[in-house]
Fold this sequence. Notes:
Elements: H1 2-16, E1 21-25, E2 28-33, E3 37-38, E4 44-45, E5 50-55, E6 66-70, H2 83-92, H3 95-101, H4 107-149, H5 155-192, H6 197-202, H7 205-222
Antiparallel strand pairs: 1-2, 2-5, 3-4, 5-6
Amino acid sequence: MGREEQIEEREVLDSIFPDEITDIDEKSYRIAIKPQIQDSDGSDTEPPTLLLTIIYPPSYPDEAPLLDLSLPPNAPKPPHLDLPTDRRTLLSSLDQTISESLGMAMIFTLVTTLTETIENLITSRIVDIQKEKDREVEEAEAKENAKFHGERVTRESFLRWREGFRAEMEKRLEEEERVRKEGEGKRGAKREERLTGRDLWEKGMVGKEMEEEEEGLEEGVEGLRFG
Length: 227
């Protein structure tokens, strides 16, 4: 009973996927899956080709078929899809469909479901990439506009500016006070540099002045007459 259903399903699939299906042996075959992907601007992008390998167990369709997903030989890595990582997720997405389809032919339904899952996965990644690009463009435009319009003043930005302004003023006042004190110190040092009496004496200036005063006194005494 199972083998008859397998042969009948295989013939139907051959009419649905005439160019996509390839026999491996009488109980296994591959179907090429080509998801339709639209780029972020709405244009169709080159879709990757994936190969779904189907192996019929003896009692299929009363038990699940064996499935595997791979790339064609020598095919380049498709953009937005990492098959070694995504294979398990994509095949696991078929578990519910398989469970609901036990007892009847299900390969066409599995191919359809898998194709939609691949399309949704790739499309979501394209959208995420475009969102990131849009965000970067918006940030660049905002920075460029800020050059002409300046930064928008908010309460937080004003408080930051006021704090910085006060700190700058305090620093300036401290610097002015330091310069003033240094100036007073220099003037005090100049006053200390004035010669003391001892310095004048040692330099001979006081002795000379006293000699001149004594000579003047002697002349004055000689000019006096006593009656």
